[in-house]
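hey m, so remember when u said the tokens were messed up on ur end? i reran from scratch. heres the input so u can diff it against urs
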Amino acid sequence: MTGFLSKPYRDSDKGKGKFFSLVVFGLFIFLFLFLFKPFGFYQLETVRQFLIALGFGLITFFVLVVFKYLIEPVVIGENWTVGKNILWDILIASSIGAANYFYICIIFEMRFNFLYLLYSMWTAILVGSIPVTISYFINYNRRYKNALKEAAITDEMFTWEDEVTITAGYSRNHFKANPRNIIYLCSNDNYVTIVTIRDNVQNKTTIRGTLKSADEELRKNSRFVRCHKCYIVNLDYVEKVTGNNQNMKLRLSSSGTEIPVARSRADDVARRIGKR
């Protein structure tokens, strides 16, 4: 059990899929309360049942948006595990319970009661465990299917040129090197720095131009990947991958340098590293 909780955790939901899952959570709370009518809901008129249940669903959705889009990107680090994510989900559920309790106090004009607050938080954790458990299974199956799909793909044949000339789109540049010796490239305004290694000695050469043009000049060498708007990395020099899709970094074996990976490119980088 301890081993499972300490496993790295990555949330596969992103973009529209992530927003859709939050909508589903809010809808689940609304339907659960309106259809099953727990906590004395059956004593209210049908119209009021509908409106109050809808309010609970909207509050749930709002709290999830705050946590998932504003707080989570700041809190989640590279050492995020399954156990930490479970505790995080419990915190979110209890926050939803607290928000819903204050909602009840307002619409029913109730006085604040700390014990009722705790009860509301505990209830939210119990009710929320249903969609959370379902989402865990969905994410697990999605990652499992993706792994099977990738495993079925024949490894790409790595191609290399004997020598590459990098101009970075500026005709006066004529940087020539064996592409296998290029560790990474990085851009700074209108300049590109090329980091190479030979006989265990690293060298840096800065030329005028753009990283986009340099990327096109390296296309025939399949181990280079544009992992960030400012970086191109030779995957043969990647020693370790840290973080998750939101803050992934590539640690290079030659120097221990850490290269950031953009969120939009994290999946592609992880897939290509897996083919080494």
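this time it looks ok to me. Residues 2-151 form one domain. if urs says something different then somethings off w ur setup not the seq
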